[in-house]
Amino acid sequence: MTELDQAARQILRGNDLGGYTVPTAGLYPFQWNWDSCLVALGWATFDEARAWAEIDSLLSAQWDDGMVPHIVFHKPSPTYFPGPDVWGTGRTPPTSGITQPPVAATVVRRLLETATDTALAEAKARSMLPKLFAWHRWFHTQRDPHGEGLVGIIHPWETGRDNAADWDAAMAAVPTEGVGEYQRRDLQHVDADQRPKKVDYDRYLYMVKHGREAGWNPDGLHDSAPFCVADIGINALLLRADRDLAALARRFGDGGAAASLESWIVRSEAGLQRLWHDGDGTYRSLDRKTGALVDASGSGAFLMLTADAAPADRRDRLLAMMDRWLAAVPYGVPSLAPADPRFDAKRYWRGPCWLVVNYLIADGCIGAGRSDLAERLRADSRAMVEKSGFWEYFDPTDGAGLGGDNFTWTAAMWLAWAGQ
Ligand code: GLC
């Protein structure tokens, strides 16, 4: 074990609040959905039971309608805003009212297939199957109410790429009336130039207000939301997770679930092709309010490789775009096209690199026959941690660490992938 391996384990242990791991102390003091799933991969490298506990704890907060919330507020904390009272979901434990990228099924399959304690893994994966299936069904019904083969998100936070340029135009149409005065907490932990702007926050809170006033009843929320986008990233990850969940359903003899998943897979494979942007040779998100593709090419498109969802000619153009981006910066993958005038090497999802995204994309590169690209992403990820430490995200122009420090999913990606 290297010193960095030890430090990474120590970060997981230090951020463990008892069965769940917070992303980092202070800035994110609760359980986050896709963080926990990806962090389970890190736990599994030295404590498989703890890895399963992480996902169990997330799924314990699942809503009756199947949604798995994006934040679970297990214990109160004054260091984060907006907290449970602002969300007003009335759940026990309190949760937010929106979801996050569904990577759980992909992680569960991976944990099962690499387990050394196979009896535990079989029992855990089997018990999680119906819960994961209910979540995926919620996505394909409540978030695709018109059966278009694309799910919609009603808040940028659902995508996990909070302030990506993908949302700029759709966000500009969101009003801010009635949001009132509030005090952000994130700026007490991180420099303002590395975080979203005030006008973004006003709109984020307006969307929360809309959901709260609708009682978070999923029926109709997709259509009434002031913001609704078919995000390329979440749709690609959902398709990948549907494939993984279908494999689990077949393994555990649940023919009914497998059949439903197969039909969603076929529908999504077709739906996703509507997001093709021929000019840039990439896939883009679609603004459901206007019916137009968004005006930004971001890293979410590369998740189409992870989903194995692009026909060969489109896949090759997408890979060519990645080659261009990686030629433009020393550390990849930037979250926004380096040539985009909005590219900002330090601001959150408008330029910086994220290890979790690199990990997911690298997996897709291998499937696409580009192990060289997968290796570049791993080497870059490794180099950024070696140079700067376990930061939340990194500057693609110099590998400097940004955002929160001692960050759990960065440490987990080191243990499960980049450092190995
Ligand atoms: C930010 C990120 C999101 C992540 C969360 C906790 O909101 O954009 O992807 O899940 O922080 O780390």
Helices and strands, with pairings:
Layout: H1 3-14, E1 31-32, H2 33-43, H3 48-59, E2 71-72, H4 84-87, H5 104-114, H6 118-142, H7 168-172, H8 198-213, H9 221-224, E3 229-230, H10 232-251, H11 255-272, E4 276-277, E5 282-283, E6 286-287, E7 292-293, H12 303-306, H13 312-328, H14 355-367, H15 371-388, E8 393-394, E9 401-402, H16 408-418
Antiparallel strand pairs: 1-2, 3-6, 4-5, 6-7, 8-9
The site of alpha-D-glucopyranose has 7 residues, from α2.
Report on this structure.
48% of the residues lie in helices and 4% in strands. The chain has helices at 3-14, 33-43, 48-59, 84-87, 104-114, 118-142, 168-172, 198-213, 221-224, 232-251, 255-272, 303-306, 312-328, 355-367, 371-388, 408-418, and strands at residues 31-32, 71-72, 229-230, 276-277, 282-283, 286-287, 292-293, 393-394, 401-402. The protein has a three-stranded antiparallel β-sheet. It has a two-stranded antiparallel ribbon with strand order 1-2. The protein has a two-stranded antiparallel ribbon with strand order 4-5. The N and C termini lie close together (10 Å). Residues 23, 28, 32, 34-35, 160, 162 line the site of alpha-D-glucopyranose.
